[in-house]
Amino acid sequence: MAEVSAEARIQAPAEQVWAQLTDWSAYGEWNATHTNFPRCGPQTLTVGGTFQENMKLMGFPAEVEWTIEELEPARVLAIRGKGPMAVVVATRYTLTPDGGATSVRIDGEFTGAAVSLMAGKLKDSATAALNESLRKLDGLVA
């Protein structure tokens, strides 16, 4: 298993950050691993809902079939997906209001036999991507 996380304070209210985070048409403008949604991203956000995403992890393309596991608008979005080579990917976005700003934390987890072979490189690559994503998200929201 490989676990990664990144956190940033964005100078905007949680509702504004959430609106950008869930604007699927602009998802690729800030998410460093995203390449596209084959079917336009989730049509509605509901627990149990599914969607497909094409991503790039460590420079390799990957198609992930996501399921929404937890949803609390403007606070939490947790998704779990199945990727290539039986890798399971989990991502959790947590927004915590902090005055007029918002603390945004992204936690990621990768599990599966293939992960153990490349856990170190995967952690480094995914952590860099999370930090880059938060920088870009901050630039779009603020």
From TrEMBL:
<dbReference type="InterPro" id="IPR023393">
    <property type="entry name" value="START-like_dom_sf"/>
</dbReference>
<dbReference type="Pfam" id="PF10604">
    <property type="entry name" value="Polyketide_cyc2"/>
</dbReference>
<protein>
    <recommendedName>
        <fullName>Polyketide cyclase</fullName>
    </recommendedName>
</protein>
<dbReference type="InterPro" id="IPR019587">
    <property type="entry name" value="Polyketide_cyclase/dehydratase"/>
</dbReference>
